[in-house]
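Shapes recur. One chain:

:::
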Amino acid sequence: MKKMMTTVRLSIAVMMMAMTTGLCSCSTQKKVVQPAETAVATQQTRTANSDYQMREPIKMILDADFGSSTDDLFALMMLNHYIDDGLVDLKGIIVDREGEKNAGVVDIFNTYYGHPDIPVGLERNGVKNPRCFIPYNGICDLKDAQGEPLFKRSFDASQCPDGYKLYRKLLSKAEDNSIVVVAIGFATTLAQLFESGADEYSNLSGLELFKQKVKSVYVQSGRFEAGDSLSGYNMRAASKQSAVFYDNLPAKVDLIMSPSNIGDKMNYLPQDVLVDLSYTEWNPIKAVYTNYTCDTGQRMWDTNCLVNAVMGDNEYHLSPRGWVTFVDRGEQSLMLFKPDPNGNARYQVPGDSYFFEEKLMDIRRHNRINKYPSRYTIESPQPTLLSGNATEWAIPRTGQLIDKYLATAGNKLDPDEFREVFRPIGYYGGNVTAYREAEKMVVDSLYTVMLDRAARAGKNTLTIITGAPGSGKSTAARKMNLTQEGLIYDAALSGGTDRLEKVIKRANDKGLNKVTVMLVYNDILTCYKNSISRGKNTNRFCTIDYMLSSFNDNKGKLEWLQKQHPEVTIIPIDCSGNRGPNPVSVQDALKWKYDVSDDEVYAMLTTLLDEINNGELWDEQLPSLVGDIMATPNLSTRNQQLAKQIDDRVRKILHDYRN
């Protein structure tokens, strides 16, 4: 038989250092000392960037709308590494999305990566209630097991200066024509800077300061494809301020733009993010991706401005020079480019697929530089581990296994889909029983995590989709609009009513008190045929004895729900003969037949024999499908004879295969 190569989260408290609370990092503070592992990784990065070590570090100000899409976070992570490599002298960071927690996110990242002394300014009069794709600033509120903040902080965000004031302070101290601005957010703070007058930092206006001190600005904006001149979300969301910026941008300042169609081709999937961080327990990006549904914002728009600014123009294909005009039409605002060899503007143009993959892999390389590596990994193939050994392997990796599943789970918990996380230790679909114990152990913790996540999001609804294997539960779930549910639990929940009772009770204890149970029915023969079809594609088969017991477990479940949980909403779904899913009344559902006749068992055995004889099954799939068929309980004499015929047939096939 072919074999694939191959719940206790490390206590964050052990890794946490004493938290230091101070003012906004506009004042200089001592840098956090990096662990040895980080020093090694940093040295490796420096070696890779050795060609850049002879130059002076770029004097930079980062201006970003932290608090929504995660590409800002990857840019900030890379920027901290560039500082370590001596490539960037970061003068300050402007947070141009209102909200002190957004400045708090920057503090968390800079402190984590060892640069808590970087000044941070905050926009306080910008875009009101802009669209938020992922509300990840909630990581500021995360606690460890002892109730302490999960991540160290170095300043009080309420004490941060206004963004435009920090701009004025930093520019006033800078040498002429020395500053590079990387603007990957709204143009709100830049517009305020341009419109500002003399103050305690300089007698110059903001526009004069910018003209005198800034040599180039890299902006994530525009879309210059044929027939498309839209300005991009950030520019449209603050169109009036964008007009101020572009109308007044000094002609002597170089403008390099990264249009949205560049980042569109760089899709950093959530599951890949967590794979790249599987060697660490404590990381702010990992905290974002495991506490929030990050199925938006993973395209890497903002990183391209940073990489271009730091690594140079040779890293990108750039348009000829020209001039840019911004046309303020609100959500329909345009950016028009007019070629002119004397112009100050250029923009990145797409390369081939290799170009985009190379840029994405560079981001992933940076993300793999881990400050606090864990000794537990879930990705490296290992010798096959089964049953108790699989459970023993899973215990110290529970947190990482949960993280990996959450990367793509959305609001759905499906134990069958979760079991895929055991592939590195030998799970291939056909050996389900060898991973039941490990699965149940981790899924128990996973359910708690997903309940907590739903509760934090203010969602108090749980939909449980249950029924026999192969009955059509997943099909029914797809047909129903469940995207707004707090949590969907899709499982057979075999073993009587005890498991269903525990699922409901734990949800209620966590505040998810609006529970719906979707009971899905299909006739036994169709269920069995469906499970065989599924097994051909996934190797996850269902033996006859398991199908019979799971099917029978649904007997009386509806009546039990009515009696024990009258507060639960019951939605019966009829998929008989795969003609559904059809919602029916509870009265009709009470007529569903869960007693299996001798003729139905005979039909199942006949179906199995036909599948074996038609030659479509691989030899190594047969044991998973047939199991110990002779141990199937309550077989009549006729069915025992047919089961014996199947058993003999499989033994002969396997004997011939192995010899």
